[in-house]
Amino acid sequence: MELSRFETAVDEISLDVFTSFEDAREDWEALFADAPVSAYQSFGFARDWFETFGRARGLTPMIVVARPAAGARPLVLVGLATSRLGPLRIAQFLGGKESNFNLGLFAADARFDADAIRALLRRAARATGVDLYRLGNQPQAFEGVANPLALPGAAPSPSFAYGTTLPATASELDMRFSSDARKKLRKKQARLEKMGALVFEHCATGARRGEILEVLLAQKAERLRDASFDSGAMRDFVLGLCGGALETHALTLDGRIIATYAGFTHSGRFSAMLNSFTAEEEIARSSPGDLLLHSLLRGLVARGVGRFDLGVGEARYKNAVCDETIALVDAVVPATPLGALAAPVLAALTRAKRAVKQNPRLFASLARLRRLAR
User: Fold this and answer.
1) What pTM was estimated for this model as a whole?
2) Which CATH number applies to 3-157+327-373?
3) Which of 201, 207, 213 is CA-nearest to residue 221?
């Protein structure tokens, strides 16, 4: 079959639906090498997320691979997991809220229109008993390429993501910030230096990487009063990725870690996944997290990294360093009559969640209620 005929010959496409990560590994890694995707679409990220979060939640992998003919190279891979919500079987992206960007892996020379995507999803649904796809937190385009899964009618996600294109030199990076902002950072750094020796550590390896991640988890647990960082899936997931692609960065004061960043680099893009700083007031007021972030940016520029993102969710420090708001969308795609009945309800829930998150007063009230409930 000619690739250019894909849009009108969906039924001729060979479709595999894997429930085993290893069965999908070869196709996954072949597409990941060239597809316009983020590090969150890597085989390792998805597999580790499922083993720590997904399995405990009773999810079942649903890895959809389409190719022009049986045995041919893959055209597309969509990493999903299915779950039950009452009588509904719902398919969602692997990665959950830990993935800041959700995307399918599409071959660079493949062409897909919305009708073809919907037809493929319906075929995969028939093979698995899925009633509805809930495909959230998708960029409408990524690395300048339109996202075929951001289907017409998709609604804005509850939150934005934040990113920026990095300049070629550190001096150009510095000039992005006002002289007043640079002066304040220098004063904060000088204040910390009076307390002891201040050292920026980047791309830690071996045992040191593990030490930084342990501190990151402890600092987040203390500051957010969230026990999930002390034990359970989150801890296992973060420390498991320590042996893989997760980069760690830290700021130390007399050898004590006072701020951290952890993220991934893929295809010239650094994606920050987690960060933390000490809750100790005397140190925290000097913004060690901001100081580390600026040092991290300078290091990325020196390495020739061209893109940087701080993930999903509104925050002051993100606006300070990112000049791009990345719009995300949620696509709800019914595959059965039951799914069609449920789709408007799930879409309404997304709209309500967005309304709360985009209203500072409502969001602050919700955050307080969550803290009280812990």
Assistant:
1) 0.89
2) 3.40.630
3) 213
